[in-house]
Automatic annotation (TrEMBL), chains A, B:
CDD domains: nucleoside_deaminase. Residues 1-111 form the CMP/dCMP-type deaminase domain. Catalyzes the deamination of adenosine to inosine at the wobble position 34 of tRNA(Arg2). It catalyses: adenosine(34) in tRNA + H2O + H(+) = inosine(34) in tRNA + NH4(+). The gene is tadA. Its cofactor is Zn(2+). This is tRNA-specific adenosine deaminase. Belongs to the cytidine and deoxycytidylate deaminase family. It comes from the Bacteria. Pfam families: MafB19-deam. InterPro entries: CMP_dCMP_dom, Cytidine_deaminase-like, MafB19-deam, tRNA_aden_deaminase. SUPFAM superfamilies: Cytidine deaminase-like (SSF53927). The active site is at E54 (proton donor).
Amino acid sequence: MTDEQYMRLAIREAEIAFEKDEVPIGAILVLNNTIIARSHNQVELLNDSTAHAEILSLTTAFNALGSKYLPDATLYVTVEPCLMCSGALYWSKIGKLVFGAPDEKNSYRKYTGDVNPFHPKTIVIGGVLQDECALLMKTFFKNKR
Amino acid sequence: MTDEQYMRLAIREAEIAFEKDEVPIGAILVLNNTIIARSHNQVELLNDSTAHAEILSLTTAFNALGSKYLPDATLYVTVEPCLMCSGALYWSKIGKLVFGAPDEKNSYRKYTGDVNPFHPKTIVIGGVLQDECALLMKTFFKNKR
């Protein structure tokens, strides 16, 4: 499967979040062409402001694989990670990060500027199905106003 | 109880981590003079590279209090938080963060420079029982070599 195809599955997760009135961000974690974890934001459900899609997929993968590092895995997430999730991805030594829409408000870049917060070996690709990923977020926050 | 007294309890948690061959960092989360959570690094036990003391105390507190924000709570942690934990503390809107030893290698400051990653209302105090907190870390990593 291609990055776009995996991102479509992450978008489906984001849509589930949207339907549950959670911030519509979804993630898929893939290892050797196998989906190890699917997740969406569950901040409201879990009453946990750190229950972001990325964190939930990472912890599921650590448990499922019995490994605390994921150098051969790829995380697909519909929105650019925040500072916390970037730090978690650093610790995971994730092999590849693919995100959809940039996030001007909460992106790690707002804090780190030109400093790369990820593991030096992590490949980072942004902008995959960016418009669809961004539209979900825009619609969600427009409805909240 | 004073900040130093709470930090002593966090150091006790770090010592438990040390005994279990985990990176010796401990945390205590306090609300209204009541200890809501005690934790230490459990990266090895949980096979989870994100199982830092701060994260474990935060998630325990979210669960215990049924609240996703902790504006009136104080987190005591023996070592300066990493980027991930700083981001988690941001989302938690923690009222006050008290840390012991600075961490040149993994501190959030390495990435954020002069940008404050915490919630604007979070009070940050560093250096409480700094030498004791640092000694545990130094001894741990010296033994590893």
